[in-house]
């Protein structure tokens, strides 16, 4: 808890990720879908995705990633001041999966809540965590991005089910007086485009019923073409605004970690921003779109491999249901 010392900065001291063991390649997809490896690779860059086992849930995926992040930071669950989980695919509508995770971790009485902003969830959750750190309210926060979308997409709809995979990523943010961590953030939302990515049934607007079930409205539906246009429109400006808010330009950024939705979105954004594609972290070919998990998953993988150095300056940028978007400049350690 807050010991009275006001610390302005928050360092990411731990990171972890988890992907289910089961790999489903494009060629493994059921023939009834009438899709092909060629179509999927050309249109999206995706070659395979991970699919959760029957006994796995959003909570168990989160737990695996969180334990790794806590071990890396050398933190016991009891030392956490707060847990924030970004997800749109929780174990249940209620109770919140953040409380399930808090209990599973053994983080007794630690406050926990969920942030629901689709694929932008991790950037929103991390930005929220930093407000608690900057204010001095909390010193040690676990932020998780997790998604189990394979249970929420219609496996008879080839325009949706090929695009997504299951994963979790987590970071530990700890207060420090050394300048580092999140230097700026930009968040946005345009609810007029809410219909572009929507699960129509099962909420207060259309409670679960036989009609919802028959209409397959308990699955996420998406207007892929419109989301594609939106994403290519917001990524560049969001990154430029976040850089400017940190007193930087894009030339000062070592790596951009974008939400992994479509390789063509990343390529188009790189061109529009005039930022080298080689400085974008891309792993969509192996995991597909893991929504709120994609940024912490890519971060963990590349820190572990040594491609991203603990001294690097990063840009996280994401977009998704809402429609929402967000970008943040993060310095892994003091420069
Ligand atoms: C979904 C997406 C890959 C579709 O690519 P696209 O080039 O826009 O393709 P379209 O949706 O226009 O569909 C073109 C054709 O391919 C077909 N198609 C769609 N999915 C297919 C699949 N998996 N395999 C084969 N054909 C497929 C469509 O039926 C359509 O056929 P038609 O022309 O005969 O009607 C692309 O729009 C996209 O990635 N959008 C962004 C989505 C996203 O990232 N969402 C997450 C945001 S967080």
How many strand elements?
13
Q: Indicate the CATH class of the largest domain.
A: Alpha Beta
Terminal CA distance: 27 Å
- The arrangement of helices and strands along the chain is EEHEHEHEHEHEEEHEHEHHHEE
How many strands, what sense, and barrel or not for the largest sheet?
Answer: 5 strands, mixed
- Looking at the chains present, what oligomeric state does this protein adopt? single chain
**Count of all domains:** 2
Bulk shape:
globular
Q: What is the CATH fold-level name of the largest domain?
A: Peroxisomal Thiolase, Chain A, domain 1
State the CATH architecture of the largest domain.
3-Layer(aba) Sandwich
Number of helices: 10
Proportion in β-strands: 15-25%
Q: What is the radius of gyration?
A: 19 Å
Q: Which small-molecule species are bound to the chains here? A: coenzyme A
Q: Determine the structural class based on helices, strands and strand pairing.
A: alpha/beta
- Low-pLDDT parts are none
Report mean pLDDT, rounded to a whole number.
96
Name the helicity range.
Answer: 25-40%
CATH superfamily of the largest domain: Thiolase/Chalcone synthase
Strand order of the largest sheet: 1-7-6-4-5
Note the topology.
Blueprint: E1 9-18, E2 22-25, H1 37-44, E3 48-51, H2 58-73, E4 82-86, H3 97-105, E5 112-115, H4 121-135, E6 140-148, H5 158-161, E7 166-176, E8 181-189, E9 197-198, H6 210-214, E10 221-222, H7 224-245, E11 255-258, H8 263-273, H9 284-287, H10 294-305, E12 313-320, E13 324-331
Parallel strand pairs: 4-5, 4-6, 11-12
Antiparallel strand pairs: 1-7, 2-3, 6-7, 8-13, 9-10, 12-13
Helix pairs in contact: 2-3, 7-8
This protein binds coenzyme A.
């Amino acid at each position: 808890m807050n010991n009275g010392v006001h610390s302005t900065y928050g360092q990411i001291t731990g990171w972890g990720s988890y992907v289910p063991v089961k790999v489903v390649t494009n060629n493994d997809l059921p023939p009834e879908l009438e899709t092909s490896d060629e179509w999927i690779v050309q249109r999206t860059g995706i070659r395979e995705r991970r699919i959760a086992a029957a006994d796995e849930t959003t909570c168990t995926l989160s737990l695996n990633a969180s334990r790794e992040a806590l071990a890396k930071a050398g933190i016991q669950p009891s030392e956490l001041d707060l847990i924030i989980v970004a997800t749109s695919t929780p174990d249940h509508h209620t109770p919140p999966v953040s409380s399930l995770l808090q209990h599973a971790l053994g983080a007794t009485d630690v406050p926990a809540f969920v942030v629901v902003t689709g694929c932008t969830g991790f950037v929103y959750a991390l930005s929220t965590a930093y407000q608690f750190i900057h204010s001095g309210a909390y010193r040690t926060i676990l932020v998780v991005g997790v998604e189990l979308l394979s249970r929420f997409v219609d496996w008879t709809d080839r325009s949706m089910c090929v695009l997504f995979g299951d994963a979790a990523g987590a970071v530990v943010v700890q207060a420090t007086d050394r300048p580092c961590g999140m230097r700026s953030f930009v968040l946005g939302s345009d609810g007029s485009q809410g219909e572009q990515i929507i699960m129509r049934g099962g909420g207060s607007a259309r409670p679960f019923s036989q009609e919802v079930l028959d209409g397959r409205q308990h699955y996420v539906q998406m207007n892929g073409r419109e989301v594609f246009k939106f994403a290519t429109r917001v990524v560049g400006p969001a990154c430029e605004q976040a850089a400017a808010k940190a007193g930087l330009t894009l030339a000062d950024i070592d790596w951009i970690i974008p939400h992994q939705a479509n390789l063509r979105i990343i390529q188009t954004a790189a061109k529009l921003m005039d930022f080298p594609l080689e400085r974008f972290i891309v792993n969509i070919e192996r995991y597909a779109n893991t929504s709120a998990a994609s940024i912490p998953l890519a971060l963990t993988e590349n820190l572990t491999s040594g491609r991203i150095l603990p001294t690097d300056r990063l840009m996280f940028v994401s977009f998704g249901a809402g429609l929402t978007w967000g970008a943040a400049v993060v310095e892994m350690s003091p420069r």
